[in-house]
Protein: ABC transporter ATP-binding protein
Organism: Candidatus Fimadaptatus faecigallinarum
Amino acid sequence: MALLEVEGLSVNYGALRALRDASLAVREGEVTALIGLNGAGKSTLLRAIIGATMPDAGRITFDGQDVTALNTLERVRRGLALCPEGRQVFPRMSVAENLRMGGYALPRREVVARMDALLELFPRLKARLRQQAGTLSGGEQQWLAIARALMCEPRLLLMDEPTLGLAPEAVAELFGLLGRIASLGVTLLVVEQDVGGVLSIAARTYALVSGECHELDAPEALLRDEAFRHEWLAEA
C-alpha cells in the first residue's frame, strides 16, 4: 500500500518549470530511490512533499489523506520529515540542542526518551552531546542531521543527497545506517547522486528527468543493465 502518493505535481519558479506533471508512489516500509541529474527538480519535489514549496498543480496524499494544502508543521505532525541537502545543522548549538530542535513538536518527556533511543542508534553522538555541531566531522554532522529528523518519529523520512561531501568510508557507513533505519519501520524516500549505493538499499527507483518522474525497473535489474550502468554509474 502506498504511504505517499504524488499525482500530477507541477512547480514553477517564474518562467522556469521545475516540476512538470510529476507522479510517484512510496510504499510503506520500503526504501524508494529518486535519481536524476543536477537541476532535474529532485530537491523541489521533496520541498513540495514536506510543504516548503507549494505546487501550482497536482495533489499530494499521505496515509490516504490529501495534504496538499497543509503547512509544513501540520505535515510533520502527521508523520513526514525532511533531512535536507547539506545537513543544515545549527553549528553554534550543541549536539543535544540540535536534537531537541528536532523534537520541538513533542512533549518534554517524549523528547528525552526519544533522544535516549536515538543515541543507541547513533553512538558517536552520545559522546559528543555537549560539543558544538559545527566542530563535528562531515559524517558526524550528517548523522546528527538524520537523528534530528528522526526525533519527531516520522513514518516517512525524505532524504536529500545524504552522501553529499562525505568521505568514501562515511558513504558506505551511511548506506548501512539507512538500511538499519528502514528495518525499524521508517519508510524512506532518498534523493541521491550515488546511484549504485542507493540502489543497494532501494526496493524501487524513480528517475526525474526534465521535471518528470519515470518509474524504472527493479534495482537489481538496473544494476545488471549495461546501458543503465553506462549512463548512471559512469561505467565505460
